[in-house]
Structures are given as structure tokens and as C-alpha cells.
Amino acid sequence: MEKIKIITDSSCDLSKNLIEKYKIEVLPLLINFGEESYLDGIDIDFNAMQERIERENVLPTTSQVTPSRFVESYKKWLDEGYKIIVLPLSSKMSGTYQSATIAKMEVGSEDIKVIDTLNVTSGLGLIVLKAATMIEDGFTLNEIEEEILKYREAIDAGLVFESLDNLVRGGRLSKGKAMLVGALGIKLLLNVENGEMNVYSKVRGTKKAIKEVVEKFNSADRKQGEPVILLEVENPEVCTTIREYLESNNIEYIHQRVGCAVGIHSGIKACGLFFVKNY
Questions:
Q1: Residue ranges of the chain with per-residue pLDDT less than 50
Q2: Measured at the alpha carbon of residue 248, what is the angle toward residues 227 and 158, in degrees to the nearest 5?
Q3: What is the pLDDT of residue 163?
Q4: Phi/psi of residue 76, each to 5°?
């Protein structure tokens, strides 16, 4: 059986327990407050980052994982006899995929597969978990690559954004539009489409937003046996309602929290579901 190592980045938003269980290497993105840079999830966590954002009224930026960091990781695992599958966040959201590809060219090994996941946060997390379980089941590197290229297209999500502050600060939403949305009590519903964050619906009120997320999930042609992830950023109202729906319908799920790299743009009070459709 092939020895295969998964390398991903910190935007996968998987818990420490899952990362340790599957022996996944997670390379941290950088969180930058001006000239000060912190390793996501190592030097800084979401709570510390958010506290500084509120205290200083400044939104940090992120920096991709560098090619040199990938080269270092590749050489380490190749020297230990591993083949490597690299699963970074979407190339449309970060240059990390390009860094991983450049590093592969520098190392010059055919035992490295770099896949553009076209996903981020728990969508990326689902892809990483799929690869991890396939490794456990004895699939080869080529077989895993073939499956992941199909699997990535089947991931869907319904996310409720309560706060638009960070979307505005990060240039993802105009201030005028945000003021209008806030005044009308309109909630944005987002998913990941073609590798980018996408607003797929707008509704008035939190209850309607929750209802729409649940209806989208309930009506989806979901692939049985695949994980469901409930993702939350300090939104107990939405999270509790969705969790009660899942548990009352005996739907198993993984509860995860957003990390720094994604949390910069989501801000607080975001919640939703990631799941896999039939493919």
C-alpha cells in the first residue's frame, strides 16, 4: 500500500482532532496587521484576531503559503518515502495553489499531485477528509486524484451572513449596499460556486434565512455516507436552530469553527452547512 501524505492550508478550518487523526500537514497562511505577520492558527486564533480588529478598527490581510514553504514540506515527506497530495484553497481566492505548483516544478517529483480544490473553509475540509478516508482504505495516489477532481464539483453550501462589516472593510461588498441590506434586515445567503464566494439569495430576517438554508439542504440530492459540516462563527441563534434540525432528523454532522484566514472576510455571526451532492 502506498504511503500518502496530505498537505493542505489553514483555510480548511478542520479541528485539531481531525488533523491529528488523519496525520494531515496544514501549512498556515499569514495574517498581516500592517508590518506584523502571524501564522494562522499557530501565532494567532480567531478570537485574538477579532479582538484586535475591533480594538484597532483595522482589517488584516492574508498572505499565501510561499513556494519555499511547500518545497521544504515536499522534501521532508518524499525523503520519508511518502507520495504527496496537495489540497490548497481555490486558486481564485489565493495564490497558494500557484505556490504549490511552482514548488512541485522545483522539486521535480512525479510523486506529488497538486489539485485546485475550487473550495475554501469547510468545502475544502470535506475534500481533505475525502482524501484522508481514501488513503485509509488503500487507494492509490492516482485513484485519489481522479476521485477528488469529481468530488470537488459536488460540494455545496448554504451560509447565513448576519454581519457585513468585514465584507465591506475587505472590499467584498460596497458600503452603500451594506447599509441598505442592514436597514432592511436582509440576510445574505452564500455558497462557493466555480471556486469563488457567491451570494445565491437574499431574504429578510434571520428566521427566513435559516429556513432557506435548511430547505436547500433538505431538497438537495445528497450523496449518502459523506460528511455534513455545520460551520459557525459566533452565531448561536442560527447554529442552534440548524443543529436541532440535523439532530431531530438523525443527520450526523461535524461541527467546525471558522479560522482566521476565512474569518477576516466572514466576520462574526456567520453560520451554515456544507454537504456533498451526488456525482
A1: none
A2: 50
A3: 67
A4: -60, -50
